[in-house]
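Comment thread on ticket #2218

A.B. wrote:
> Attaching the input chain for the structure job we discussed in standup.
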Amino acid sequence: MRKDPYTYYQEVLDKISFADAAVFRKELRKAMRRLMPEEREQLRQWFRSHCVCKSARPAGPGIMESRVS
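C.D. wrote:
> Ran it. Output below, let me know if you need it in another format.
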């Protein structure tokens, strides 16, 4: 059974959210390139509500805004 792309990328990003920041940014950019506009907005909302707060170290300046907006 295949997952929809949004669910797949959400799970991938959730699993690597504590990993190397460069890997996370790479996967986030890849997801934003491959998702439909509606799914991109869903992923942005998910990112803002889940991932940003989980990080033990502060995120780089504008990680979400400068890379995927």
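A.B. wrote:
> Thanks. Noting for the ticket: Helices lie at 5-16, 21-34, 37-54, 63-68.
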